[in-house]
Design brief:
By secondary structure, the protein is mostly helical. Among the domains are: 571-642, Serine Threonine Protein Phosphatase 5, Tetratricopeptide repeat (Alpha Horseshoe); 645-728, Serine Threonine Protein Phosphatase 5, Tetratricopeptide repeat. The protein is 70% helix and 0% strand. The protein has 40 helices and no strands. The chain has helices at residues 21-29, 33-45, 53-65, 69-81, 89-101, 105-117, 125-136, 141-153, 161-173, 177-189, 197-209, 213-225, 233-244, 249-261, 269-281, 285-297, 305-317, 321-333, 341-353, 357-369, 377-389, 393-405, 413-424, 429-441, 449-460, 465-477, 485-497, 501-513, 521-533, 537-549, 557-569, 573-585, 593-605, 609-621, 629-641, 645-657, 665-677, 681-693, 701-713, 717-726. It is elongated and about 130 Å long. The N and C termini lie far apart (119 Å).
Length: 728
């Protein structure tokens, strides 16, 4: 046996100038561990020796047996990959542990990977973090990146984006492309840092220069959405393609998506299918799901539910909730499989438990209707609530209906309106219509005709008959919108074609105004009367208008007041306002300012802007009610907020003169300005005054002259006089 003194030391590596493999071999054969490790590497990599994994393993074993940590790590790697030995992850871990405990950073990194993914040992993420950190603190750039990933994803440690960024930055400083890409992702998503698309692009570009396929794909996404760069679909596609050709399955998916939607490239379902298929075969679950949808819909391929089922199952097998839901849909409809509502519900529930909002909504429907499960309104409400909290419009609407009807939950109009509004804001037509109804009738919300009309319009545009009728009424009466005869005809016509009785009544209005048909006032009154006698509040109001103006019947103020009163008693705000006008002016009844104020107040409380202004005026002047300038201001504010120019002007007067509110020139200018912007000449004149005198604004004569000119052009004599005195 060779003794310690017989060992021939040779410390040069193949990277050193003058390295001599034969001298290294002699040293290794003499038992020198470092040379044995180097000979193992020569044979492993085929440098200065033929590539021979078996011989490499033999040398690594000799060196490892002497405690050489690098050789122990290399031997572990050979067992890990099955190079020169039969693959054996347990033995790989054994040697990785030896090397890691010996301080070899690569061994520590590899051991951490084994613990994280359960290769040769049970998964132990905490142990993985321990070894990642050990390697990272030695400057191992890959370990630093992996440790950052653990902190970013909460693997083995509590999620901490700040620490994740710290380790990403250390790794990136050494040029690690994955860390650069990860840093870009943090800035792109605002994770641990303030969102900054431009810095994200910078990091992605640095990583892309190192040929990181993920960074190149991420750059494509930046160009696709115009985040941090000018939006350019064509460049996005170029980058996606470059990344896809580097075998990045995510980029392949994006290519399929771009071809499917014709963004950056001409729409081509065949090419879309090809890219999706490439990505799907590599295991991309988004592509697998998309491929399933392509077969399901027959988009660019022959419709094939069986193949759709196969791809959905592959994606579902990876936990994709969308695929689970798609499978549920196939079972529900019996497409590609025998129809099975119970199995459909089971799959739907799995997707719902994964947090997929639409699946939660579907489970709500299943429970509400008893499809595949026992009917249970309480559970339906629970599922709807989960989906609603995630923003699912249909779930929000259905939850609203449950609260409105008290099914499965305690009846609660406010919650009904709340959830209805959330759905309406997302464009769901039934919810938009219902929300319009809530605002019109003050159900769960304060009455507001303007808001009612706005929501009706949104639903009507989507073909909702009830909303079309309601919108026609709004335009007919100027409720919440400016009266628009053309719109009236349009929306009554659309709803009437769908068989809506109220819209058919609206045809009477069309006869009244000669819209789309030859004008026939007598025919109009006949239809109004028929509807009015049945208690139709809108017909009663219009009929009152006819009697008031003598349209189609002999003018009869008393009869007009009769029908105004009938409609007003049913809560019609416009009728209430008009009845107030009648009492104020002694039209059809003995003049009675108190009654006028009473009806103004009723209409004003429902949001009728004219009534709000008129009530404010009565309170300000003390006509029909005890003078109360503070309350007058309150109503002027409500009307002004709805855009009523006279209210805005009067509110400006109140603020300027300190009537009902503390004197405040800035507020006066604000409200004068709003009214002036709508063309109110008195407000324009007062804007001139404020700028001329520097009240609430910096004195500005040219600005004052501009406002005086606007008012003067509308015939405002005060403005004309001021301009003349100023020499203009």
């Amino acid at each position: 046996m060779a003794g310690e003194n017989d060992v021939i030391k040779y410390d040069l590596t193949w990277e050193d100038h003058g390295f001599d493999v034969e001298k290294c071999r002699i040293s290794a054969e003499s038992g020198y561990a470092l040379a044995q490790d180097m000979m193992g590497n020569c044979y492993k990599w085929g440098v200065y020796a033929p590539k021979d994994f078996t011989t490499a393993v033999a040398w690594f074993e000799k060196s490892a047996a002497q405690g050489n940590a690098a050789a122990q790590r290399s031997l572990g790697y050979c067992y890990d990959e099955g190079q020169g030995v039969e693959q054996n992850w347990e033995k790989a871990v054994y040697w990785y542990i030896k090397g890691a405990e010996g301080g070899d950073a690569d061994a520590q990194q590899n051991l951490a990977i084994c613990y994280e993914h359960g290769k040769g040992v049970p998964i132990d993420t905490a142990e993985a973090v321990k070894w990642y950190e050990a390697a990272a603190r030695q400057g191992h750039e890959c370990a630093q990146y992996c440790l950052g990933q653990c902190y970013a994803n909460g693997v083995g440690v509590e999620r901490d984006y700040g620490k994740a960024i710290e380790w990403y930055e250390r790794s990136a400083a050494q040029g690690d492309e994955d860390a650069l890409c990860a840093l870009g992702g943090c800035y792109y998503n605002g994770q641990g840092v303030t969102q900054d698309y431009h810095r994200a692009v910078k990091y992605f570009e640095e990583a892309a220069e190192k040929n990181s396929p993920y960074a190149i794909s991420n750059l494509g996404t930046c160009y696709y959405y115009g985040n941090g760069v000018e939006q350019d679909y064509a460049i996005a596609v170029e980058l996606y393609k470059e990344s896809a050709e580097m075998c990045n399955r995510g980029a392949m998916y994006h290519m399929g998506y771009c071809y499917s939607h014709g963004t950056g490239v001409e729409q081509d379902y065949k090419k879309s299918f090809e890219w999706y298929e490439k990505a799907a075969l590599l295991g991309d679950l988004d592509a697998q799901y998309s491929l399933g949808m392509i077969y399901k819909d027959g988009q660019g391929v022959k419709q094939d539910y069986a193949k759709a089922l196969q791809w959905f199952e592959k994606a579902a097998g990876q936990g994709d909730a969308d695929a689970l839901l798609a499978l549920s849909d196939l079972y529900d409809k019996g497409e590609g499989v025998a129809r099975d509502s119970v199995q459909s519900a089971r799959l739907c529930e799995k997707a719902a438990l994964e947090g997929l909002a639409v699946a939660q909504y579907n489970m709500g429907v299943n429970c509400e209707q008893g499809t595949g499960v026992e009917q249970d309104y309480g559970k339906a409400a629970q599922w709807y609530a989960l989906a609603a909290e995630q923003g699912d419009a249909k779930a929000q609407y259905n939850l609203s209906v449950l609260y409105d009807q008290g099914n499965g939950v305690e009846l609660d109009e406010e919650k009904a309106a709340l959830w209805c509004e959330k759905a309406a804001e997302q464009g769901y037509a039934p919810a938009q219509h219902n929300l319009g109804y809530y605002y019109e009738n003050g159900s769960g919300v304060e009455e507001d005709e303007e808001k009612a009309a706005r929501w009706y319009a949104l639903a009507a545009e989507q073909g909702h008959a009830l909303a079309q009728f309601a919108l026609a009424v709004c335009y007919e009466h100027g409720q919440g919108v400016e009266q628009d005869d053309a719109q009236v005809v349009q929306w009554y016509g659309k709803a009437a074609q769908q068989g809506h009785a109220g819209a058919q009544f609206g045809l009477g209005y069309c006869y009244d105004k000669g819209k789309g048909v030859k004008q026939d006032l007598a025919e109009a009154v006949r239809w109004y009367t028929e509807a009015a006698l049945q208690g139709d509040v809108d017909a009663q109001f219009i009929l009152a208008e006819c009697y008031y103006s003598g349209r189609g019947v002999e003018e009869d103020d008393t009869e007009a007041v009769r029908w105004y009163t009938e409609a007003a008693k049913q809560g019609d705000a416009s009728a209430q306002y008009c009845l107030g006008v009648c009492y104020r002016n002694g039209i059809g009844v003995e003049a009675d300012d108190a009654q006028g104020v009473k009806w103004y107040r009723k209409a004003a409380k429902q949001g009728n802007v004219n009534a709000q202004f008129s009530l404010g005026y009565c309170l300000e002047k003390g006509e029909g009610v005890e003078q109360d300038e503070e309350k007058a201001v309150t109503w002027y504010k409500k009307a002004a907020a709805q855009g009523h120019t006279d209210a805005q002007f009067n509110l400006g007067v109140c603020y300027k003169n300190g009537r009902g509110v503390e004197m405040n020139y800035k507020q006066a200018v604000k409200w004068y300005g709003k009214a002036a912007a709508q063309g109110n000449s008195s407000a324009q004149y007062m804007m001139g005054v404020m700028y001329l005198k520097g009240l609430g604004v910096s004195q500005d004569v040219p600005e004052a002259v501009e406002w005086f000119t606007k008012a003067a052009e509308q015939g405002n004599e005060k403005a004309q006089d001021v301009l003349q005195r100023l020499g203009y």
